[in-house]
Amino acid sequence: MHIVDGALSTEVLIGGAAITTVGLGLGLKKLNIENIPTAGVLSASFFIASLIHVPLGPSSVHLILSGLAGLVLGWAAFPALFVGLLLQAVFFGFGGLTVLGVNAVNIALPAVIVYFICRRGVLSENRTVAALWGAFGGGLAIALTTVFVAISLALTGDEFFEAVKLVLFAHVPVMIIEGVLSGMAVLLIHRVKPDLFQVATRAV
Amino acid sequence: MFKYIKKNLAVTALAATLSVAVVVPAHAHKVLADAYASGDMIEGEVGFSNGDMAKNVRIEIVDVDGNPLGEAQTDEDGIFFFKPTQMVEHVFRADLGAGHVAEFSVAVEDLPEINGQTMPVTATSSSVTQTLTASSGQAVVAAQVSSADIRSIRQEMKLLRKEIAAYKEKNDFQTILGGLGYIFGLCGLYLFFLARKEKKSVTKG
Asked: Of A109, A180, B5, B75, whose CB neighbour count within 10 A is largest?
């Protein structure tokens, strides 16, 4: 899902960097003493999840966990995922430093969108309803990311529908796995620590 | 307050570990590409870091200024051949789709011999070797290296090259731990700044 250096035009790179700067600013404002540790743990799990590949049919896929980060952190997911991406680029050569802005938008913005769409559902008193919303959010984050990746490639010249088809269909299994795991995580959080979801909205 | 943070942290960590524990480690998905002289041709390889080779991909070949020099196509094993005709640096570009792009090059001094014409540096160094071997009486042995030997040497070199590429792609446990260290360090740093800010506002108020 990471786009590599040299695949995108300069305009797209600058656009991505600009949106990322705004997202980082908004996200850092939402970070407070209470949710920094949570952000750190989610950032770390995102950093590691991309290294763990699940063999699936002829290819292999890896988890992204951006949906879960979005649900728990809201805007604060932006800096958390950005740090993960930065370290992946530096240590493992995933993506690259020039495309970091675009990759951050493609992965973190869906997380924030998921937060706004699913948070009411996740806060539901009914555990099953909450878990289903969590699962939906987990899958939705990946779906949105694939569409964003396709848009970035299309803006550079690739045929949009070709790109969407390629990336979206390749990630259907990830969406399902990610959905199931996010649902389970929401269920666990509900059972053990229900107010974790409120931390993101609490005033600084 | 700190009790609160601790509980928060433990639950998130547990949820995250649960999600990660279900799956097994493997290679990352990155484009790997390399090209090298092979006889009078340039041989190259394009593939993904998970071991899949890039089949039937068009390779565009340009010089450093972007002027086209030709193109090539990878075969079923992700291997392509190109016969260079100019003594300039060759830049190879492969677009594997979906944001996977590889760009790699062969420098002038690494080019194979073109129509008997090589770089002056190579020419002098090889003539020096020739005189050396001749004077030590080993020239006969050198001449006996058959093309079959060269082929098997190339085969072995290819295996070595693959192994080195795989080694480069290996994600060390230390690197992963280092990354985690950075993340927690950044968290600590930010917490420190926030705490200082809070302290200041308390003393002012």
From this structure: A109
Q: Say if the Cβ atoms of A49 and B20 lie within 8 Å.
A: yes
Domain count of the fold of chain A: 1
B165 with B178, same domain: the answer is no
* Domain around A152: 10-198
Contact pairs from chain A to chain B, CB under 8 Å: 169
Distance, CA of A50 to CA of B129 (rounded, Å): 50
CA distance A7 to B196: 43
Chain A residues 72-91 with CB within 8 Å of chain B:
72, 83-84, 87-88, 91
Of A50, A87, A158, the CB nearest to B182: A87
What would the pLDDT profile of B103-142 be if each residue is shown by its tens digit? 787 777 777 766 555 544 444 444 444 444 444 444 445 5
Q: Which residue has the tokens 């086209």?
A: B68
Q: Where are the beta strands (DSSP E) in chain B?
A: 31-38, 41-48, 58-62, 68-73, 79-82, 90-95, 101-106
Residue-wise pLDDT for B152-191, tens only, equals 887 787 778 777 777 776 667 788 888 889 999 998 898 8
Of A35, A21, A13, which is closest to residue A196 (Cα–Cα)? A35
- ipTM exceeding cut-off 0.90 for this assembly: no
Q: Which domain holds residue B89?
A: 31-113+146-169
| Residue B92: other Cβ atoms inside 10 A | 24
Write the pLDDT tens digit of every residue in B12-29: 655 555 544 443 333 345
